[in-house]
Amino acid sequence: MWIRQCASLKSVLFLSLLILSFFPQRILAADAIEPVKSASFESVVLNIILNEEQKGELFVKITEDGDFLIKVDDLKNIGFIRPEGVTMEIGGEPYISIKSMQQVESIFNEKELSLIITASPELLPKSTIDLLAQRQLNVYYPTGNSAFLNYRLNYNDSDSTGGVSNITNQLGIRLKDVLFLSDSSYTKTENDERLVRLMSNMTYDRRDDMQRIVAGDLFASSGELGSSLNIGGIGFSKVYRINPYFAKNPMLTLSGLISLPSEVEIYLNGVSIKKEKLSPGEFELKNISYYGGAGLVEVVIRDSFGREQRIKYPYYFTDLLLKKGLHEYSYNIGFLRERFGAESNSYGDRVFSAFHRYGVRDLLTVGGRAEGTVKGLYNLGPQLAYNIYNSGVVTLSLAASKDDADKSGFGWSLDYGYQGGRLSTRFMTRNFTEDYTTISSNLSTEKTKGEYAAGVGYGTPSSGNISVDFFTTIKYVGTDKQATTVGYSRNLSKLLSGYVTFRNVREQEAYNEFFVGLNYYSDGDLMITSNYRSSKDEKTAQIQAQKSLPVGEGMGYRATIERTDSAAGANYKFNPLLQYSTRYGLYEGEFRENYYETGNRSESYQLSASGAIVYVGSTFGLIRPVTDSFGMVEVGDLKGIRVYQGGLEVGKTDSTGKVFVPNLSSYFDNSISIEDKDITLDYMIPEVRKYVSPPFRSGAYINFDVSRFQAVTGKLHIKSDKEMKDVEFYEIRLLAGERGITFPTGKGGEFYIENIRAGQYQARFDYKDKACLFSISVPESDETIIDIGDVVCEDIQ
Known about the structure:
Elements (H helix, E strand, L loop, with lengths): L8 H12 L4 E5 L2 E4 L5 E10 L2 E11 L4 E4 H7 L8 E4 L2 E5 L6 E6 L4 E6 L7 E4 L15 E13 L3 E14 L2 E11 L4 E14 L4 E11 L6 E11 L13 E7 L3 E7 L2 E8 L2 E8 L4 E11 L4 E10 L9 E11 L9 E15 L2 E10 L4 E10 L5 E10 L5 E12 L3 E10 L14 E14 L3 E14 L3 E11 L4 E11 L3 E12 L4 E9 L3 E10 L6 E13 L2 E13 L4 E11 L4 E16 L2 E5 L5 E7 L6 E4 L2 E5 L5 E7 L5 E5 L8 E2 L4 E4 L6 E6 L2 E2 L2 E10 L2 E4 L4 E5 L5 E4 L5 E5 L4 E9 L2 E9 L6 E9 L1 E2 L1
Parallel strand pairs: 3-9, 10-20, 42-49, 51-58
Antiparallel strand pairs: 1-2, 1-6, 3-4, 4-5, 5-7, 6-7, 8-9, 11-12, 11-40, 12-13, 13-14, 14-15, 15-16, 16-23, 17-20, 18-19, 18-21, 21-22, 23-24, 24-25, 25-26, 26-27, 27-28, 28-29, 29-30, 30-31, 31-32, 32-33, 33-34, 34-35, 35-36, 36-37, 37-38, 38-39, 39-40, 40-41, 42-45, 43-44, 43-46, 46-48, ...
């Protein structure tokens, strides 16, 4: 029996007593059940207000001494995390005495039939606001097989070299979780031709664990004081970019308690970045982030009475540190690649390269690195990165080495950087003993003794940015070098910016360099730059106009005019480039002309065509080059449906209802949508937008399952005892698909069925405790509503 608030209080009390007389009553205190000798309860419906927040109406028991009993489940539903107090069992359900609850007060408003409860915020649930970019709901993660073959055909002809043809390609094949990649280059000149395989490998990503295994050719780096190597072998790494929505670097998290409904607004360096409403209780503001450097976070909390509280928190954001408890690593072993780009299969010494970093605290990351060869060269040492209490980050690396001649060496590096709102500073020193050796330096004739750098920068939006940098390199073998650079840049207007750079260099002799330029950005995608350079041996003035290629089909261009003055005289250069992007490829034409003051002239031109042959969703296609992942969108068999990626049109479906998308970002939630206005009203569209997150370098089949709206109508009759009767007001079951279709009949046996394809279907209904079986034939038709006329059921079982 439900009691509405509009009922009189006397009626409510009378009905409550009547209901309660049918239920046994027991009291539970301190988790023990104790019988109650005599108790009287009144059951009412009250409007519950918890910490000034409306929670709706609940059934409440009022005791003789003015206490209020509320079901445990109801208290949880209105916001209490773990309601505790004297518990009574009424009608088999537990109730809690409000008066017995610690840190809880209540006021009964008899006139408005409301119970106002005030609870300590610790008793209420936590509200969490996560400022990190979140994944969309219902993201599609493709796992099917796919393949692509990128190609670029290039022809270059000049007065000096003659014609040169070049073909480069990259083959990618994905079989579920495994990706095979291989690229090569073929070059033909008037005197020679060469085919070279470049990189070939297989990649397996463990997406949930953000781990990657690569077998084949790969690049490996052991980090600071080590080498970057091209090897053929196997590598195992932690790759956080496999999940771009995971934060590996420390971010600011703030928490607190509020007792009233409030609004929180978060400011970062004076700019509002988030505004949300909070319920009473504990709150947590997670993953407040900044692109880098010192930031001032200000949290403004306004409660329901308009009272305001401001909390300021300085924080230093950096990508040099790992969050507490996170690991980052890469372990690689294989054979050193030699003559890369000139020979296909030249491998040398067996080598290994590894690093491992661990976030001890948000302020401290430690790790180690190592590399070596089978011939006896080793290099290893510890690493450390520390946030100096929001005053910048210092990194320290130490390394010891031993070469294959058993000579030992030592190196160390200390870096410090601070990036503030206006001020930035940087300092670096690297020092090496003469016999310090890495795999890459062992291949070089130069030996570095030390590298030192320092710089400072200051800037404001109104006055611009100025910087001063010093850099020195000292060699054991080779030429020492010192450079001092002073730079200034400023936005002169919304569309115009300028910059000036002066550089003094001291090597075997001293010289100065000077650079000044202006950049103009139009409201569209046109950019015009002009600059003047003065260096040791020449002076150059240049102006360039550039229009970038659109995301979809369209044209782009670049045109450059340049004059260079040197000891040989003046030289003029004219260099236009035209690009055209189509559905099936990218085409370029470039012309270069050099005109010398002496009267000499040289010309060259280059023509290229690039694209990709792709396979996904049992379909081959021709598209623009695949730089990451790609997709194929299918919209039934509808032609001319516009398809968008991130709100930008990428193409229209062809006669088969398909269009390829050549530039999906792997692991991100790519927004792919269709224009529903292009679809006629006789089609049904379950959804017009999908979020697709493909694996690395893979193809995604993206199906928008549109279906034509088509209905069938007719009249159903039954032939029983040689008499024809209308089947009126019966429920008919049609065997179509896994679940079947159920539809009713109306007056005269009329029926109406929606969204059924052409074909022969079996159907049945129960007639006088018997089953009547019959078939319905739906013909092929372009009509929206198909009238199949009279249908007769004669098979009664």
